[in-house]
Amino acid sequence: MRKYFFLCITFCLLFSCGDGDLEIETIDFDSVTLQFCTTPSATEKNILFKINNTEALILELQSGVLNKGVVGETVVTQSAISNQSQLTYRIFSDDVSKNYFCDDIPPAEAVVIDEVEAEDGFVTISTTADEANGNFVHTITLNEISFITERGERITNLSVSTFGEVTTAIPAP
């Protein structure tokens, strides 16, 4: 009887303990400011990011996607996630700052604990001209974004209605 008791206790302990994996329920960056290291370019890839203490949402826009402005019109452009633009969610061991992304050698304190790439969705860019300042204003939104963790769990609870705005110069005529 004693053997069965210890066997049952051992069995319960093995199956009741968590496996220690990090569970991501919600990705919320709606109230976080958009940042970048270099001024966004209309003709090159652009890395844009949002930092929320120990989390970061990193968007790599495909080359030329910001080169769609027309003075006097609103131009809407879409870029597909995973085959044109990339969206990455990272969790760090400590708070990170803009320096983590912009320094030649990132600070060593923050270690990436988890990283999840978006598998599906769209980046929508609405471009209007701000002729008074000589810029195109690009409003970036994320639509139908779906992350899939290493364990195959789908995260669709992404709270980022507007990713942010960036500007590029209106080319000279």
Strand content: 35-45%
The total count of strands amounts to 11
The percentage helix is 10-25%
Amino-to-carboxy terminus distance: 90 Å
Largest sheet: 9 strands, antiparallel
Cα-based radius of gyration, to the nearest Å: 21 Å
Low-confidence stretches: 4-22
Average pLDDT, to the nearest integer?
A: 83
The general outline is globular
Question: Which structural class is indicated by helix and strand composition?
Answer: mainly beta
Q: List the helices and strands in order.
A: HEEEEEEHEEEEE
Continuous helix count: 2
Layout: helices, strands, pairs:
Elements: H1 2-16, E1 27-28, E2 34-36, E3 46-52, E4 55-61, E5 75-80, E6 86-92, H2 98-102, E7 112-130, E8 135-148, E9 154-155, E10 158-159, E11 162-169
Parallel strand pairs: 1-10
Antiparallel strand pairs: 2-3, 3-4, 4-6, 5-7, 6-7, 7-8, 8-9, 8-11
Notable characteristics:
mainly beta, nine-stranded antiparallel sheet, two-stranded parallel ribbon, globular
What would you note in describing this structure?
This protein is mainly beta and 173 residues long. Helix content is 12%, strand content 45%. The chain has helices spanning 2-16, 98-102, and strands spanning 27-28, 34-36, 46-52, 55-61, 75-80, 86-92, 112-130, 135-148, 154-155, 158-159, 162-169. Strands 2, 3, 4, 5, 6, 7, 8, 9 and 11 form a nine-stranded antiparallel beta sheet that branches. A two-stranded parallel ribbon has the order 1-10.
